[in-house]
Amino acid sequence: MENLVYETKNGWESLTDSQKKEVFYFSKGYAKYLDNGKTERLACREAVRLAKENGFVDLEEKETLKSGDRVYMVNRDKSVYFAVIGKEDIEKGINFVISHIDSPRIDLKQNPLYEDGELALLKTHYYGGIKKYQWTATPLSLIGVVALENGENVNISIGENDDEPIFYISDLLIHLATKQMQKKLHEGIEGEALNIIIGSTPDEKSEKDKFRTTVLKLLNEKYGIKEEDFLSAELEAVPNFKARDIGLDRALIGAYGHDDRVCAYTSLMALLEEKEPQKTAVCMFSDKEEIGSMGNTGMRSAFFEYATALLIEKTKGTYNELSLKRTFRNSDCLSSDVNAAFDPTYPEVNDRKNCAYLSRGVVITKYTGSRGKSGTSDASAEFVAKIRRIFNEGNVVWQTAELGKVDEGGGGTIAQYVANLDINVIDCGVPLLSMHAPVEVASKLDIYMAYKGYKAFYRNY
Ligand code: MN
Ligand code: MN
Fold it and tell me: What structural domains does the chain harbor?
């Protein structure tokens, strides 16, 4: 008799030894991508480098496009759109996989540098949803750009190489923390307390601002910048450690920025393997998801429509608005973002029958939102059925989940903005432990299954 009961299982038991080897091998390339891409700009640049190695060329340099062509388009160094042109008329629809490459972090303020208590420090403004206490007393690197008035960009990266100094946000010693420890967790460390130590020696030749001057002199020597240049800089303090295996069996990866570079990398790897797909295949990395997808590099900007319009114009030789709308209406999209994995230490926040587990595969999330599904794009039953079929036929290990129990909290993804353009969309990504912490945890099996799932989706068997 047919098995009428549905249950997901740990994916490791269903893999052969050679498949397990493949899973472990795949994760090595991913770990490297994480280490080379700790900011949205670096994650974008590194992805473009990988795409170019695989025959992708700048979309704007192509006059016309034909089946099998491989193109990319970068948006302000922070977001990128990759496409492989399909055999079929583009108006019959595109298969999109869209992730984001910004991650929670600590940004410098515009006027960051000050001195106090014989130290030079940097004021910061955190980016995205963080538990502030997790970012104190932990090693940080400083990465980003300083844009000069003459149009040049000075790239800065300090802390990633072992011979470079690192940065640090202090926390109160436990001995004197009686009052702090009585505060609520979210008040224990305030936003204005995330000050980064950048120096501690006085400049002997200066009368005042001695500690600031030491730092400014060093920055000027190395990068040719002065204090005013901080005004037009984007400098991000990010966790200093590299991606590492977790556990004796080495089956998990601990790293900064899994959310959501894990879905970005896996979707790009799936796209790179497409030679001449039936439908045009697009993989896009958006920015600013962690702060609501606002801004001209976020998913709510017109860039996504512009890049798609260019594809239509260059494949068909003509373009009109109706053509773009028809293309969107016929398109499917996986909003590839992470979900929370069940944590046995905090079982109370999840409904065990409707949450994701590490190593049970890539997660489909029909709806996100909070309270009564507020702020979600709820994928239609028919679209869920289609993805089910694609994943089952492609032997993908997969599971479904909500983000936590009803009324426990919640969150959203870019799915709603894609849905508003009249595209079928569902969230589909990798489950994580400790999402948004300086080190997040993902299972190598789930990472591999995300890649396999995106590949099956592009092939749409
Ligand atoms: Mn995310
Ligand atoms: Mn996030």
Answer: 11-103+256-458 (3.40.630.10), 105-239 (2.30.250.10)
